[in-house]
Amino acid sequence: MIPYPLQWPEHMPRFKAAREAGQFRTTLVGAINNVKDSLKRFAADSGKPLANVVISSNVTLGADKPSDPGVAVWFVWDGMTVCIPVDRYAKVEANLQAIHHIVEARRTELRHGTLALVRATFTGFAALPAPQPASKRSWREVFGYHDTQMPTTTELNRTWRDLAGKRHPDAGGSHDLMSELNEARAAALREIKG
Known about the structure:
The protein is α+β, with helices and mostly antiparallel strands. The chain is built from six helices and three strands. The chain has helices at residues 28-46, 92-112, 115-123, 139-143, 153-167, 175-193, and strands at residues 50-57, 71-77, 80-86. The protein has a three-stranded antiparallel sheet, with helices on both faces. The longest helix is centred in the middle third of the chain and has 21 residues, at 92-112. It starts with 27 loop residues before the first helix and ends with a helix.
């Protein structure tokens, strides 16, 4: 899944030079699968849990080649929230494939180093929460759930799809509304899977 719009970590600067074409020979679907497989193998190699994987980009219906091809892969590993963002390349699939290679490099560190070395490396990828305005709504408010109501993952995803159909910029919504919805979904999934 590639939630729209791109959620870039605030502590990571964007690539300033002209974007490179990249030498990767992969499709968008292939690159997504490579990232997912690498993360799964990394979790197995480390013996530590990895959950809540979110691949964020500006790819959306009707725009598979967005003007901003950056990608950020967010996940929780061994209790640490991690974000690996790449926007060096001109195509989304190239940036995803680069993230795949970054995860594979962590697997190499595990094979030839120690778990402590990998933790130290991931410290640089630690996703600091973005400062939130005081008026930020809870995920329950965004989705319209009562405080005592806990949806299943299936129910939450169904509600997300319905709301995304109204909030998406292509449907008359806005970037901010879609961002709020994606952030609320990520928070809800963390609590549901908690």
